[in-house]
Amino acid sequence: MKFLKWLGISLISLIALLLIIALFLPSNFHVERSIEIDKPVNAIFETAVDMNLRAKWDPWLEMEPSAEISVQMTPEIIGSGYTWKGEIIGEGKITILEFIPNELIKSKIEFIEPQSMESDVIWSFIETDNGTLITWAFEGSLSYPIEKWSGLFMDKFMGPQFEKGLSNFKKLVESLPDMSGRTGEIKEFQFEGLFAISIKEECAINKLSSKMMEMYPELMDFLNENNLEIYGPPFAIYHESETEGFTLLECALPIKTKIKGKDNINFIEILPTKTIMASHFGHYNTVKTTYSELFKHINENSLNVTGSPWEMYITDPMKEPDQSKWETKVYFPIK
Predict the structure, then answer these.
(1) CATH class held by domain 25-175
(2) pLDDT surpasses 60 at 214
(3) What does the radius of gyration of the chain's CA atoms come to, in whole angstroms?
(4) C-alpha span between 161 and 116 (Å, rounded)
């Protein structure tokens, strides 16, 4: 009996000691690995945000190819993600919350089964002389006491998987064709004009995508409430702002007839006008290459731009997974 008594006391003391030590253990964890890839940063960034490609490099999805995967892609990246469910890898989802083109992607990962947990996944991109250095990081908080103990071994257990994933990712990126986007024929075009509803707000350049994700659903709700239909592809006008690093963003949906606006939703009309136009083919993040070509053409031909440029989003990315086929028409009104 004494043995059992002392055994019980020893176990209680050990448990108490572990609980006390756990109080002083880190409440957060951070695991990261990096790799350098011999590709331009924009090509790497576009591959990282393309959830349709995730299964081709993700080390955990590689562990269970038969797992159920459901991909969600949004035109503006924010909200893109995927869910997974399998016997080996459990169940969960990952969603992109914010990004800075060619610099940062921040996502929330939610583990549902076998254990509930939420953490952050962060990708960062730095251009180097030899290509691009990317860092894949995983971080979050640890609950007391078990998770705080497990945090001591997080890097050891997860680090090798991160290394494998980055190696897979590197091979995938370097095997892909050039995804930097391309510019179609630059030409003068007589724009026919249109009616539309719009929302206009000043917005930081690096927050355009998240702002668009707020504006377009609000415009769609207005159409549905008023039994109206979209009469053409969505578009956005980029007005100048007096604030550095900002633009006056106007997101719009074409409609067939004139209507009255309401609150922050305006009725606008773009009159028939002469424009210089080019189609951009590729991800939205690469459209700046077409702007560069248009600016060059405008300067070389001494064209007089008379207003703000606009983009029309011709291709529905939910129907066309191949980003190289995504078409965005860029217009500059000219005299």
Answers:
(1) alpha beta
(2) yes
(3) 26
(4) 20
